[in-house]
Design brief:
The chain contains eight helices and two strands, in the order H-E-H-H-H-E-H-H-H-H. It is mainly alpha-helical and 178 residues long. The protein has two domains: 86 residues, no CATH class; 82 residues, no CATH class. A two-stranded antiparallel ribbon has the order 1-2. The radius of gyration is 31 Å and the shape is elongated.
Length: 178
């Protein structure tokens, strides 16, 4: 990069493109993918219809069958404590998104910043996190310092945040000059 680069403006542009890098390609819900449509298909509808559909699902018919097979005189239904639970597995699929996420990328003229921040993160991970938070995050510097400290698990005061930011900016200026 040339020496006449306004580093702060370039970092702000990089931060904007980093935050808005991924876009959702939402063409709307396709037929049958709607959770409400699936719920309407599965729901019994009225209370009377639910009682008709769900009758016999309390396990009583199974317990009667077990009592008949037990051969005990006078036993019509096996008590619930004497029954093994019906083995079942959770075969429900996790919820999925109904839209594709598209990576718009970072403009070619800002890739050097991406490479420099990656290089910084290998040597000084906290400084790189501070730099990312400063130009990609939202809020006051105190809020950003709190997010950085939670991110790496240590304590980081506002003064330390500003100091690390200054060192990161110096490192980036050195990269521009190189």
């Amino acid at each position: 990069m040339s020496g006449g680069v306004d580093l702060k403006a370039e970092l702000k542009r990089w931060g904007y493109y980093s935050v808005t890098r991924f876009a959702a390609n939402d063409d709307g819900l396709s037929g049958g993918d709607s959770y409400l449509a699936k719920a309407k298909d599965l729901a019994p509808g009225t209370k009377e219809r639910a009682l008709r559909v769900l009758i016999g699902r309390d396990g009583e018919s199974r317990r009667r069958l077990m009592a008949d097979g037990a051969g005990v005189k006078g036993m019509h239904v096996v008590p619930t404590w004497a029954c093994d639970p019906v083995p079942a597995k959770n075969d429900a699929s996790p919820p999925s998104t109904t839209f594709a996420v598209v990576d718009l990328g970072i403009p070619d003229d800002l890739r050097w910043i991406d490479d420099a921040v990656r290089s910084l993160s290998r040597r000084y991970p906290v400084r790189a996190q501070v730099l990312r938070e400063e130009f990609c995050g939202v809020g006051t510097q105190r809020m950003k310092a709190g997010r950085v400290s939670r991110g790496y698990g240590g304590a980081l005061s506002l003064r330390q945040y500003k100091y690390e930011l200054q060192l990161a900016m110096d490192w980036m200026r050195m990269r521009v000059a190189a």
